[in-house]
Known about the structure:
Layout: E1 3-8, H1 16-29, E2 33-37, H2 41-46, E3 49-52, H3 79-92, E4 96-101, H4 103-114, E5 119-123, H5 139-160, E6 163-168, H6 175-183, E7 188-190, H7 198-209, E8 216-221, H8 227-238, E9 242-246, H9 258-276, E10 282-287, E11 290-295, H10 296-300, H11 308-317
Parallel strand pairs: 1-2, 1-4, 4-5, 5-10, 6-8, 6-9, 7-8
Antiparallel strand pairs: 2-3, 10-11
The protein binds 6-O-phosphono-beta-D-fructofuranose.
Amino acid sequence: MKKIxxxxxxxxAPGMNAAIRAVTRTALKHNMTVMGVRRGxxxxxxxxxxxxxxRSVSDIIQRGGTMLYTARCNEFRFDEGLQKAxxxxxxxxxxxxxxxxxxxxxxxxxxLSARGIPCVAIPGTIDNDIAMTEYTIGYDTAMxxxxxxxxxxxxxxxxxxxxxxxxxxxxxAGHIAVNTGIATGATYIITEEVPYxxxxxxxxxxxxxxxxKHHFIVVVSEGIGNSQEIAKKIEHATGVDTRATILGxxxxxxxxxxxxxxxxxxxxxxxxxxxIKGYSNRVIGMRHSNIVDFDIQEALSMKKSFENDLYRIAMxxxx
Length: 319
Ligand code: F6P
């Protein structure tokens, strides 16, 4: 393995830059040449590739986003796109690739590995929705961002005796919701994994009203219901002035936390070592706080369990 490429693909996540830095520096230490592929798999198809040296990755460990840009690439789902990418790798002399992204990006890495370009994937997504790993790069930063914003909402809700219905990201996974919910003392946490009705939420708010509570936070995981509608129903039933807030993409930006920088550095380092040892079609994960790796197809067939215990604790103590 003499020359490797790095791709960031799918949604960006804080800590991706730290991973790019770790991959680049580890590969350079092993006297390899490093290329940065820009805008996800599109860069492989179009040949949008830049050389990276020690200094190219200076001053990025603390930055959110990705210096390589990122994109979702529909063409890469088909053989024609994959063949174009393979041709680019051969033309550029790229012997292996490190792909940083979510499960959609892993499928691309598996397909390219099957076509003879060794790929190792690193989980980078704020959602932490990938089954084979306890942790995905960006998750901690996104949760801390959401928590800080919900704390601000609480200040104004408390002052005005209001209820805040606040929607957090997570695609179809409620990990951000349950963790930020418990961390902000949410009266109710609505996620896809736990069945609920708006009447349950209303009943809980009404019960806490009888104990003297005047302001309420309801954390909603995105995609599960219309936050505005939920807010209206709560207001109508409880008489509490209620506002809906969608936190949105602010959760994807910002300077990565210590945890994201450290895990990104560990995983980036590990990825290059796997390529050097001749592995392909692997994805890196964290299990019991150790960095490990799996076959990509095996990883994709795993099912992520929800933090039911954490949810139960949140419900037991926030009323
Ligand atoms: O996967 C990360 C994520 O931010 C999800 O939480 C969210 O559902 C999605 O990406 C948003 O995607 P886009 O940036 O394409 O709107």
